[in-house]
Design brief:
207 residues, disordered N terminus, globular
């Protein structure tokens, strides 16, 4: 029995408890995590109860929960490469914009306000499937997206394969999630996706 499984059993936590997603904010109380156990997933914030414990901290790569006075640190689950995933072709360094998804401009305050409202729905309704190339994760297919959220307003569509954001290759779910704190200080967000097999750029300017 590994140390994490032993601690989970000792503390009364589910032995299969895992963190499958984390979205960080500059305000700790606004951080959100997705926890999963027994085939059920919960979207929780700091101070909220989940699976018999209470979330005490959400930090990069880890969610801490309190179970009867004992702290359990649950690491963000890694992404397993899927041998059945189709390979991703190398994208051009600066692919053209999709004419049907022109550059967008948003007020930064409006984006942050909407994120505060939409994050639970985005986490619950967005499905990502890793795509591999030579055994390495090379992007994520957005198989399901909630309509009317910042994701679709930014130009993303179901079926897009997200390969990079602001020139950072998306090689794991944790890489994708960890980008948010860095993007909060950017004026331009640029995502490269494969759409119908062709690389295109989606641009959002924050005012």
């Amino acid at each position: 029995m590994g140390p994490l499984l032993f601690l989970a059993t000792l503390a009364g936590a589910p032995a299969d408890l895992e963190a499958v997603g984390i979205i960080l904010s500059r305000r700790p109380e606004a951080c959100v995590a997705i926890l999963r156990s027994g085939g059920r997933a919960r979207v929780v914030g700091v101070g909220e109860a989940a699976f018999g414990g209470r979330v005490s901290a959400i930090v990069p790569g880890r969610v801490s929960l309190d179970f009867g006075g004992e702290r359990l640190d649950v690491r963000l689950a890694g992404v397993a490469a899927s041998p059945s995933s189709p390979p991703v072709s190398a994208a051009a360094s600066s692919p053209a914009e999709d004419p049907s998804s022109p550059a967008r401009s948003m007020e930064r305050r409006e984006m942050e306000r909407r994120l505060g409202q939409e994050v639970p729905r985005i986490l619950a309704e967005t499905t990502l499937v890793p795509v591999t190339d030579s055994g390495q994760v090379a992007g994520f297919t957005l198989t399901r997206l909630p309509e009317g959220t910042l994701l679709t307003d930014a130009g993303l569509r179901p079926g897009d394969v997200l390969t990079s954001v602001n020139d950072v290759p998306i090689d794991s779910l944790s890489t994708l999630i960890s980008l948010w704190p860095r993007l909060q200080s950017e004026s331009d967000i640029r995502a490269v996706v494969l759409r119908n097999g062709q690389p295109v750029t989606l641009n959002v300017h924050l005012r």
